Amino acid sequence: MGLEVQRVGEHEFVGRNERGAEVRLGRKGAEGAFSPAELLQVAAAGCSAVTAEHLITRRIGDDSKFRVEVSADRREGASELDAVHVKFDVDVSSLAEDDRKALAEAVDRAIDKLCTVSRTLKKGIPVTEEFPTA
Question: What b/e string do you get for 54-89 counting C-beta neighbours within 10 Å, with b at 16 or more?
Answer without folding.
Answer: ebbeebbeeeeeeebebeeeeeeeeeeeeebebebe
